[in-house]
Specification:
This protein is of the alpha+beta class. It contains 21 helices and 13 strands. The strands form 3 sheets. It has a 9-stranded mixed sheet, with helices on both faces. Helix 11 (about 265-275) links the parallel strand 4 (about 255) and strand 5. The two termini are about 35 Å apart.
């Protein structure tokens, strides 16, 4: 782990080492845990930077206003044609003259209709008017061709101080369940020390209440679970709508993803009832998709908004409810979930209206979903019961290997959309070179020239430099090992993974919502690689099944 990242885990004080249970106040500000100075230089030629500009978006953002302006120009040109045909001697601009011009303009449009009916074409207009009309037709066609998807706002859940626990308090909560062996507690302690989580991450009140009394068990009831869901979801929805200046009744699509808590009535019904949304709002509840579900929800919202014949808005909520999923057994495969996952949630407001481009925060450029296949991928994150019938989520030892394969497939699909042509060309050359040498080796071996085949050079697969097409990375804060592995394999700088490490330290693994805590950190806190207009942000998440999802946003 880089020396800068080693500083992220604050040392435990004497009280914590002695298992003192006094409530901690709060984690320090994210900006206080510096990442070791300014980012190293990463130079890209100016021509390459210009080539990476999304010119479609640049034109598309201004296209609605340009269309309105074009209509006004077209009308002005028609009036100018009428005035010119009257001659300069009549330009006194009296009321009678204006009325006469308006009459002649209307007569001109009647003549246009008659000429179309009689197949005489547009000969009655001047070349300037016809040119402007043609440009307007093209602009309207572009506007109707594919609707954009804008992120108007997003918000994340900030847990109250009473929900936050230190590592010592987490272990004490485990101890007070009176179901974990000393070997399990020692295993949990070691996992916590290496997890990368800080000393002020949040657990729900139904579990934290164990600290109030040694005889008070964890409350895993449906009532406590619903209370946690209401606290998290209502908070993020209210803040997201307020930031976007959108009223609840303006929402056309409501999508909520929560993997392990799916009550009846649904979480969507809970939000509709609380915020008095319209009765015809389309709702979708997604479950069982793990930490990758937020970008799956974003992708669903994108498909709905782009296929809608009218302008609309979508509200996406991503969360995970921990209260009913507190594992009470001693199987190590299930125990890991008790050390990594923490309370959190996020809400996002999306729009497909071109006119919202001026006030939007980001524009969605790409989403890619990859589903792993095979028994290993299906079993690596699996909800079930241990030998004693205790329910939990088992994490397989193959999860890192499976996640790596899924991410490789995902980035193979994403690369052509975000990488400059020079990087794509190097990938093609690498593949072609490896194929040619393989065929040459097989030919030499077939002709009993193994000695020459062994002398052929070995061409390693070329790993494209995604830093040339992406400015910021939001890597799912699934654990320190996940972040370390991606940073090493993608050759990222320390400041590229800063947001992921700080989110893991301050909030833990909040499941599907973690990538939004990271984007919030990049947007509001990061100083080593500050966010600028025109920057591209990549979000990557992994989930059960096994799935890898990615999304690319353009900062507006």
């Amino acid at each position: 782990m880089p020396p800068q990242a080693q500083q992220l885990m604050p040392p435990m004080n004497d009280e914590q080492e002695n298992h003192g249970l006094r409530r901690i106040s709060s984690e320090s500000s994210m900006s206080d845990a510096g990442m070791g100075g300014p980012p190293s230089e990463y130079r890209v030629r100016k021509s390459s930077l210009i080539g990476m500009i999304d010119w479609t978006h640049v034109l598309g953002t201004h296209l609605p206003l340009l269309t309105v302006g074009g209509i006004l120009i077209l009308f002005a040109q028609i009036v100018h044609q009428v005035v010119t045909e009257r001659g300069p001697q009549d330009l006194d601009w009296s009321m009678e003259t204006i009325q006469h011009i308006a009459t002649e303009v209307s007569v001109l449009f009647v003549s246009l209709y008659e000429s179309i009916v009689e197949s005489r074409g547009f000969l009655i207009f001047s070349p300037a008017v016809k040119t402007t009309a043609l440009v307007l037709v093209v602009m309207v066609w572009i506007l109707r061709r594919e609707k954009p998807v804008y992120l108007l706002s997003f918000s994340t859940f900030k847990p109250p101080e009473s929900w936050k626990v230190s590592h010592a308090e987490v272990l004490e909560i485990m101890r007070r369940q009176k179901c974990f062996t000393e070997e399990s507690l020692e295993f949990l302690r070691k996992i916590l020390e290496r997890s990368g989580t800080g000393q002020a991450t949040a657990w729900p009140p139904g579990i934290v209440q164990c600290l109030d009394s040694p005889d008070k068990p964890a409350d895993r009831s449906i009532e406590a679970s619903r209370k946690e869901a209401e606290t998290v979801i209502f908070d993020v929805v209210e803040k997201a709508l307020r930031k976007a200046n959108v009223k609840p009744k303006e929402i056309d699509y409501l999508i909520i993803n929560c993997s392990l808590f799916s009550p009846t009535p649904s979480l969507c019904a809970m939000v509709i009832n609380k915020f008095a949304m319209r009765s015809d709002v389309c709702t979708y509840n997604l479950s069982g998709m793990g930490c990758s579900a937020s970008l799956i929800s974003i992708d669903l919202a994108k498909q709905l908004l782009r296929s809608s014949p009218r302008n609309g808005k979508a509200l996406v909520v991503s969360t995970e409810i921990l209260t009913p999923n507190f594992y009470h057994g001693n199987d190590r495969g299930f125990l890991i979930q008790n050390t990594l996952f923490r309370c959190g949630g996020a809400a996002m407001v999306l729009s497909n209206s071109w006119f919202d481009g001026k006030r939007a925060w980001y524009k969605l450029l790409h989403t890619v979903r990859v589903q792993g296949t095979g028994e290993a991928a299906y079993q690596c994150v699996y909800e079930g019961e241990d030998a004693n019938g205790e329910r939990g989520v088992r994490l397989s030892k193959d999860i890192v290997k499976v996640a790596g394969k899924c991410m490789e497939k995902n980035f193979t699909m994403l690369g052509p959309s975000v990488l400059p042509l020079t990087e794509q060309a190097l990938v093609v050359l690498s593949i072609a070179g490896r194929f040619f040498l393989k065929q040459m080796s097989n030919f030499l071996k077939a002709n009993k020239k193994e000695d020459l085949a062994l002398k052929l050079p070995v061409v390693k697969p070329y790993v494209p430099d995604f830093k040339r097409g992406i400015d910021h990375f939001c890597i799912h804060a699934g654990g320190r090992a996940v972040i370390d592995g991606i940073e090493k394999n993608m050759k990222l700088e320390t400041y590229h993974t800063e947001a992921s490490r700080m989110t893991l330290m301050n909030y833990g693994n909040t499941s599907s919502s973690s990538i939004w805590y990271e984007l919030e950190y990049i947007q509001e806190m990061q100083t080593t690689n500050p966010l600028k207009k025109g920057d591209r942000v990549l979000q990557v998440a992994f989930g059960s099944g096994f799935k890898c999802t990615s999304g690319v946003w353009l900062k507006l």
